[in-house]
Design goal:
By secondary structure, this protein is α+β, with helices and mostly antiparallel strands. The protein is 41% helix and 15% strand. β2 and β3 (53-56) form a beta hairpin.
């Protein structure tokens, strides 16, 4: 007899791995060597103490000396320590034409009262008939002690296939039935809901259309009332035929006055422009390559040439103070010409602060003696924006020359 090396404190049904029936026989008695039937179908039934079936094996047909049933599935919730085991066999033909099934044997089993057999299956030397052998993780157990000898060679590993419990099949059937019922109810609910939504949508559409028609009628009445009021006002202020002046005479005099006023305004703009040029002639602005007054067209100030600023030329200028002053004059010249004389809308605002003027209130139109990289980038952006203002004014002067 081998000693028990179990590491389980309490064996339960979920720890059971397989069940084998040794010396399977249809005839009761200890001597089975002379039995007529060697092979016949068998299966197992496990029940708990309340008589509920927890496992039904598949039908197996094997040697009568040791019939091992399929490996049990994982019964994680099977915590029973007491079960009932029944071995059911089919009566062979032709002796039994009806092929009836009979219970060969039944046992009441306490898993914690079993006798340890060994780490390997006892394939021989098992006394009695229809003897159940239980396999756990720590070895094989039997109801009564069995003489055991360690095998001298490697035992043959029997191939088994997994099965599922009777309860699992029952639960699966119930779940499938429940799912089909849920699907049918869901479809019916979806159909009813869609029908209700459609009815509600139609009611809301009717209400919305009626409300819109009422609003349109109210607006139409208000517009008719306003139109009637305007008609009455027109009739009140309309002059009498004898008080009206001839239309042709009135139009001719008005057009003539407008033409005269336009010429006066243009002449005034030209005089202001000339005055502005005279003022800036004494500055360094007209000494730069950016503002050029053509001598041949000195009578018309609109022939002046305004050039865009060049960043590289400014960066290579040695006298930064003089350059900053010239840039301030250029900004002031463009600002006065656009805002006070010609009324030209500029894309970007100009603010004159002498040699530290700025564009758009943030970008400096000047360079310090030792500028940083960030200051140079801001200065470059300011030049780009200022050049756009210059192009706006230049386009206006070009149109005036035409």
């Amino acid at each position: 007899m081998c000693t028990n090396s179990s590491y389980l404190l309490l064996r339960r049904l979920r720890h059971l791995r397989s069940i084998s029936i040794c010396n399977v026989s249809l005839i009761r008695g200890d001597n089975i060597q002379g039995t007529k039937w060697k092979l016949f179908p068998c299966y197992l039934i496990l029940e708990d103490t309340s008589g509920e079936i927890v496992y039904v094996s598949e039908v197996q047909t094997g040697a009568h000396t040791s019939l091992r049933f399929n490996e049990l599935p994982l019964l994680e919730n099977a915590v029973q320590t007491f079960v009932s085991l029944e071995v059911v066999a089919q009566l062979p033909s032709p002796e039994f034409p009806k092929n009836d099934w009979v219970v060969l044997c039944s046992y009441s089993i306490d898993f914690n009262s079993l006798t340890y057999v060994g780490k390997t299956h006892p394939l021989s030397n098992v006394p009695g008939i229809n003897v159940p052998i239980f396999e756990f993780n720590d070895g094989y157990y039997a109801l009564t002690p069995i003489p055991y000898e360690e095998p001298t060679n490697t035992p043959i590993k029997l191939q088994t296939k997994k099965s599922i419990t009777f309860n699992s099949l029952l639960k699966l059937g119930r779940m499938l039935e429940y799912l089909s019922q849920v699907k049918l109810e869901s479809r019916k609910f979806a159909y009813d809901l869609q029908f209700l939504i459609q009815e509600l949508h139609e009611e809301e559409m009717d209400m919305a259309i009626k409300s819109t028609l009422m609003d349109l009628e109210y607006q139409n009445e208000r517009k008719l009332a306003v139109l009637g009021s305007l008609k009455r006002c027109v009739l009140q202020i309309s002059p009498k035929p004898e008080e009206e002046e001839p239309f042709d005479n009135d139009y001719g005099s008005m057009y003539s006055e407008l033409v005269q006023k336009k010429h006066r305004i243009l002449n005034l703009q030209e005089r202001k422009f000339k005055k502005l040029i005279d003022i800036f002639t004494n500055t360094t602005l007209f000494q730069s390559p950016y503002v050029i007054l053509h001598a041949a067209d000195a009578d018309s100030p609109y022939n002046i040439s305004l050039e865009k600023l060049d960043l590289q030329t400014i960066l290579h200028t040695d006298n930064r103070i003089s350059m900053n002053t010239m840039l301030g004059y250029y900004l002031l010249f463009i600002s006065i010409l656009a805002r006070k004389i010609c009324y030209i809308p500029l894309p970007y605002s100009l603010a004159y602060y002498g040699s530290t003027s700025v564009i758009n209130n943030t970008l400096p139109l000047y360079l310090t003696l030792s500028p940083t990289q960030q200051q140079i980038e801001s200065f470059s952006t300011a030049i780009d924006l200022f050049n756009m203002d210059i192009m706006q004014v230049k386009q206006y002067l070009y149109n005036r020359r035409e």
